[in-house]
Design brief:
The protein is of the alpha/beta class. The protein is built from 16 helices and 20 strands. Strands 7-8-6-9-10-11 form a 6-stranded parallel beta sheet.
Length: 452
């Protein structure tokens, strides 16, 4: 770190661990601020090493993994979200009183305009984009990023927006201490990333950090773990899939028509929305609660909801042929997301489900009653298919298939008019695909090819 000479008396020596997209954004930001920057990675061939070498020659680049001696010479360590803070070298740095932060904490210390912070096991990207469209429909200057699209530090530029809207993962929240969002939400908490956390309680506590310092707390009244996250916080606004209490957001019914509602006021027929599934109703209510906290006009928010058509790989209707709907929810990488998709789409035992992949330490037993109620048949793929098979009720037909092509072929044979073929794997994708997007694309391609 001695090569990291300080250009000004108030500059610091920053060490960034992780050469991914987030790490690169941190390096660019810190160099612009006049700080000395070094970088290292746990991987032998990190993805952006060539860019750092060619475009950021001021960076002191260590290519030999984590170097504790170098780490202890830094003033601040900036940890990329993909780097596990339980690593011994990170613990050792903390024990020597080296401050360890992430890009979101760096962002929070550098901006003046209000932040809307969105986290949860499922639905983050949908709510983030819904709310962004609401803000823009209302004429607000919105900058959106974090765990979606642009890294948070890449959003900082003049002029500042009216609002920053950030999607935040639990990994990003691990290193946050002063976000102090204007409004924040924990959409839901279900078992996920248990290969990184000791148990769901630790994961839940990490999610709950988003509420610290927030002026307005938005709470999912239907999710017990989310409600626990909000205990002790004031100025709460809730949302529910039931009739709302007080001025919370929820659903109401009149003459067979179901409406989004706030308190006793019916706002929008759900049939006017383009997105499908009960979980997307919940997402819309969360976005309305956040938008209300931002004082966005209701008319603009509802118009945005009517126009919102959803994100790829999230309960995406691929096609409907011969009365069978083919739905891609490859983003359902955990049990909670898979359950939400099944419950949100099903009208009985009409789901032909394609599931499986990498379990990430999850328990699958919560799937059993959902399968019993909603599944017509189960097609299993991937590394941990057996774990899902073991919790499947015996009266549900199931088959293990080799790949996505076989899964679609079998589903085509099984599904009849009125059924839904749903890809909602409840698992990560990296045993067979680079990411969930590639998995979803494979499903779409096979559906289009085999149904044409």
């Amino acid at each position: 770190m001695t090569a990291m000479s300080r250009a000004k008396a108030n500059t610091k020596a920053y060490l960034i661990i992780g050469l991914g997209k987030t790490g690169l954004s941190c390096a660019r930001f810190l160099l612009e601020q006049g700080h000395a920057v070094a970088m290292m990675d746990t991987r032998k061939n990190p993805p952006y090493i060539d860019i750092v070498q060619n475009e950021l020659p001021e960076v002191l680049l260590n290519k030999d993994g984590l170097n504790l001696k170098l780490m202890l010479k830094s003033d601040v360590i900036v940890l990329s979200p993909g780097v596990d803070p339980r690593l011994q070298e990170i613990k050792a740095a903390r024990s020597h009183n080296i401050e360890v932060i992430g890009d979101i904490e760096l962002f929070a210390r550098s901006i003046n305009q209000p932040v809307i912070a969105i986290t949860g096991s499922n639905g983050k990207s949908t709510v983030t984009t819904m709310l962004t469209e609401m803000g823009r429909m209302a004429g607000k200057n919105i900058k959106v990023g974090g765990n979606i699209g642009i890294p948070a530090l890449g959003l900082i530029a003049d002029p500042e927006p009216d609002f920053y809207i950030l999607e935040l993962s639990s990994f990003q929240l691990e290193t946050v201490s002063s976000l102090n969002a204007y409004a924040s939400v924990v959409l839901n908490v279900s078992p996920d990333h248990l290969d990184r956390y000791e148990d769901i309680e630790q994961y839940q506590k990490t999610k709950a950090k988003v509420y610290i310092g927030s002026e307005v707390i938005v709470v999912n009244r239907d999710d017990n773990l989310s409600c626990e996250c909000a205990e002790g916080f004031q100025n709460q606004t809730g949302f529910t899939l039931h009739k709302p209490i007080g001025n919370d957001f929820g659903v109401d019914e009149e003459r067979g028509e179901v409406y989004l509602a706030r308190g006793k006021e019916r706002l929008l027929p759900i049939s006017d929305m383009q997105v499908i599934g009960e979980h997307n109703i919940s997402n819309a209510l969360a976005a309305l609660a956040l938008g209300h906290a931002m004082q966005l006009p209701m008319k603009a928010m509802l118009e945005a909801l009517k126009q919102y058509s959803g994100l790829p790989h999230r309960c995406q209707l691929v096609t409907e042929k011969n009365g069978v709907k083919w739905v891609n929810d490859s983003k359902a990488t955990n049990v909670g997301a898979s359950i939400a998709a099944i419950k949100g789409l099903s009208c009985g035992r009409d789901i032909v489900l394609i599931a499986g992949g990498v379990a990430k330490g999850q328990e699958f037993s919560d799937l059993t009653p959902i399968f019993e109620t909603h599944l017509k048949s189960l097609l299993l793929i991937g590394q941990d298919a057996k774990e899902i098979s073991e919790v499947t009720p015996r009266d549900i037909p199931q088959q293990t298939v080799r790949n996505m092509s076989d899964a679609v072929k079998k589903a085509k044979m099984i599904a009849k008019e009125g059924d839904i073929v749903l890809l909602a794997p409840a698992c990560a994708s990296f045993d067979m695909f680079d990411n969930y997007e590639k998995r979803g694309d494979a499903f779409i391609n096979e559906v289009e090819a085999q149904l044409s």
